[in-house]
Amino acid sequence: MAYADGGSGRPLLLVHGWGANAAFFDAQRRALEQDFRVITLDLRGHGASPAPDGRPTVDLLAADLIALADHLGLEDMLAVGWSMGAMVLWRALLSGLAGRVAGMAVVDMTPRIVNDPAWSLGIKGGYDLATSETACRAMVADWPAFTQALARAVVADGLDAERWPLVDWIAGEAGHNEPHALSHLWGSLVQQDFRADLERFDQPTLIVHGALSQLYAAATSQFLETRLPDARRIAFDRSGHAPHLEEPDQFNRVVTEFAATLTGRDRARTRRAAATPQP
To answer: How is the chain split into domains, by residue range?
Structure first.
C-alpha cells in the first residue's frame, strides 16, 4: 500500500474517499506537517495501491488501515475519514484500531448510503440499491463519463466558474483508477450499515458537513451528532462534499483546533497497562 509519512507531533491519519487518493489531502499535508505527523495513503484499488484480485471491499481496506497503523507504530492519533474513508475508519475501529485513536473527524458522510422506506438520510434523491446497481453498470460501461459526473457532484451545489479547474482535477485523478475494481468496492460500500454501531464510537468526534453538499443533507450530519456519544458538528458554508478541498484553510484550522482538545487520551498505553500482570 502506498503511503506518505511526514512531519512530527501527534499522528494525523487522513483517509480519502471512494475514487480518490492521497493527493486529495495535499493541502492538509503541506500546511499541517509543521504541527502533526501527517500520514496519507492510497487505499487499495486507488492511486498507487493496486487491488491484486480486482475485488477490494470495505473490510479489506479497514484491515489495511490497521496493518499500516501497526507498521508505523501509530498511537494517540487523530483520524480523519472523508466520505467512504469514514466507513473504512469505522470498520477499522470496530476491528481493533480503537485503542490507537484519540479522536476522529467524519467529513460529509452517512452511516448508510442507500435509502429505503425507513431511511432517508443516505445519498440525496432517494438513492437506493436499484440506483446503485445502475451506477455500477455505468462505471464499467463509460468510466470517463462517470468520473466527470462524480467530480461535478463532489463540489458545491450551484457551481461557480472558479471551481471548474477543481472539477477537472477530481475527474482526472479518479480516472486513473480501474473501473471494475471501483465498481466492486462500491458494491461493498452500499452494503455497509453503521447505524447500530455509532454509540460504540466513544472517541471525541468532529462531524464536518458541507452546507452545499450535493450528496448529503444537513439532517444526515445532525443524525450523526445525536447518535455518536461525544460529537460536535460544524458546517462549511461554501463547501459541497469536500470541505478540505473547497475551503482548505478553514478546514486545516478547524482540525488543528479540534486536535488541541484531545489531551491525555492515549488509549493504547492505557490498554497495555491494564493488560500487564501486576506483582
So the answer is: 3-111+194-275
Predicted TM-score (pTM) of this structure = 0.93
Provide the angle, in degrees to the nearest 10, between the axes of the packed helices 58-72 and 179-189.
100
* Three-class SS state of 103: strand
Q: The C-alpha cell of 124 is what?
A: 440525496
How confident is residue 273, by pLDDT bands cut at 50, 70 and 90? Answer: very low
The domain defined by 3-111+194-275 folds into Rossmann fold (3.40.50)
Confidence of residue 54 (pLDDT cuts 50, 70, 90): confident
Give the model confidence (pLDDT) of 196-253 as tens digits. 999 999 999 999 999 999 999 999 999 999 999 999 999 999 999 999 999 999 999 9
User: Among all chains, which residue has been given the C-alpha cell 469536500?
Assistant: 242
d(CA 54, CA 179): 9
Q: What is the three-class DSSP state of 217?
A: coil
Q: At what angle do helices 129-141 and 143-154 cross, to 10 degrees?
A: 130
Continuous segment of H or E residues that includes residue 30 = helix 26-32
> β-pairing, 3-7 with 205-210?
unpaired
Among candidates 154, 180, 153, 184, which has minimal Cα distance to 245? 154
Work out the mean pLDDT of the chain and round it to a whole number: 93
Kindly report the CA angle at 15 between 217 and 124, in degrees rounded to 5? Answer: 20
Give yes or no for residue 91 having a pLDDT over 70. Answer: yes
Please determine, for residue 264, whether its predicted confidence score (pLDDT) is greater than 70: no
**Residue 82 phi/psi, 5° resolution?**
-100, 125
CA distance 189 to 9: 33
The three-class DSSP label of residue 115 is coil
Question: Do 114 and 83 form a contact (C-beta atoms < 8 A)?
Answer: no
Q: Answer yes or no: are the C-beta atoms of 81 and 107 closer than 8 Å.
A: yes
